[in-house]
């Protein structure tokens, strides 16, 4: 049925165009032969095609444009006639004899244009006559296009200031009156379209009306271009008349479009000075009008106007723009009871952006807007409308974007209260936005109170909120927690006491994070605390009592806090991570000469190793970390060091795989020979470790031979040879030339045996080691003499 209607419309349009072209042809012939009477006759018949009611506005427009082109040619002919002496007044009378009213009015407008141009009569009289006569057409589509034609032909002939058609003192008033009258009549016709035809075609009619809206809006554009319309005239005449028409038409589409037109076409300066009048109309509009978009666009324009020059800012204060906009938004929200929460939040978001642009120094204004938003949200509880939550994020992001500083935003008392109404997911998004702002602007948050407020805002990222979903995207979660970790590293204060308070505050929040979050958030907290320990230690040089009295911050206090913090990882469980952190703390305690504290951290690390680290690869890694850390410790007395060293060598011998055992045992040799400590140079025990490593390497070969029929690689022997060379060079008297020589020969023999497996890597390793020996020989001096007896 619809397809049939479209086909019929195409036929009617084709028929109309054909009729129009045929009469236009005869009109041109009459024009060429200067036959005025025939020209008027055929032009009237041509224009009769516009009397159709069968076409949609879109198709009617096609027909109208063809007629418009022909009328321009007719207008040129009339101008020529006037120049040849034909009386325009007679012509004006003559065209009124056309049989049908629509062709008659089109011809009248065309001749009227020439009449004004001839200046034989005042422009205001001709325009008044034309706009009154056009009332004869009351069909909405035909009337709109006729009045649009009148507007088109008259726009450059208005009696404006500085125009060639300017008459006496009040002609600007006449020009404005003409445009306003034409606008009013066009709007009435446009609105009337809504009420023609059956209710089932409502959507179709609305679409058609949308296509025609620019015909009405052009009048407001013409008004804005009239030079004589100054602020006083706009305030006293133009705006009240336009708004009266907007409010009285009681049509949703017209009200929204025309309010938007007013905002877009008239100057910002006029809007600012007439804010009260413009805003006064808003609560009177139909409840279904999208007032949030209208007001948002108005505030956006005013914000841009304020940003354009600092000179205009006093005007905003003078007219109390914020107060007026705030009151208007309150009244609109009150008047439109059914306004969705999304609409209200959008309005507050736009008002906040306006406030931040125009009054950036007035934090009380910004807080007032957020407070009004909280009041509106308080009746709703948590938001579940995605559009509204997006607007809340925009609202809360605005102060961050303006001030580039979360510290300023934290001064707004209602800021965290607004965040409470976000659902869990959006709360996380907003927390991430806050962290990104801090990172981007390198914001320094330097007091415990500010950290407390910030972490309260970010609680969605720091702990599981009530009702949080179980299913979380793993990558997103990691990204969120890594951003929290980066934030913790950024917190800083030069004052050591305050820094300790910051760390304590962070710990309080981080500890609520649960097993999934702690592995991400505990390490940065630990390293932040260790930085503070080193700063405290650094102050030792300046002060006699660097760690203060009992009540002040001391390394001991921080280590106690660290012990509790790392122990929390046991609930995760994350034993490998906890072990690494205990060893880091032990090293820091070593630097502070706190032996009992360092011993306690090592004890904790050993307990974790024994009870929690069961994976063989993890054990190897952990053991090498333990040996490396212990080797660097200087704080331990003989007894404590022996205990820890004995434990480490014991663990080495109990590793599952022989190669791992071998490497751990020769690693332990370093525990008995520490370069910068003479009391820790026990050559005999070094040799015992190396000999034990050799035995284990040998056992590994025998096992390989028994299981696979070959002795496998000799790389372990080469690694042990390198250790022998290291201790030989460091001056261990137990490592002799003969021992090294014997080991080189053993390796060479093994590599040449039938049972060995070819291993290019081992060959290269041995060649590199032998090259090193030759290189040391060539050095000369004491080192050269030492290496000289070794035959490589």
UniProtKB/TrEMBL annotation:
Location(s) in or outside the cell: Cytoplasm; Endosome membrane; Golgi apparatus, trans-Golgi network membrane; Prevacuolar compartment membrane
InterPro entries: Vps35, Vps35_C
Principal location: cytoplasm
Membrane topology, as annotated: Peripheral membrane protein
A GO biological-process term: intracellular protein transport
Keyword entries, A-Z: Cytoplasm, Endosome, Golgi apparatus, Membrane, Protein transport, Transport
GO CC annotations, alphabetized: cytosol; endosome membrane; Golgi apparatus; late endosome; retromer, cargo-selective complex
Role, per record: Plays a role in vesicular protein sorting.
Family stated for the protein in its record: Belongs to the VPS35 family.
The protein, known as: Vacuolar protein sorting-associated protein 35
Lineage, broadest ranks: Eukaryota, Viridiplantae, Streptophyta, Embryophyta, Tracheophyta
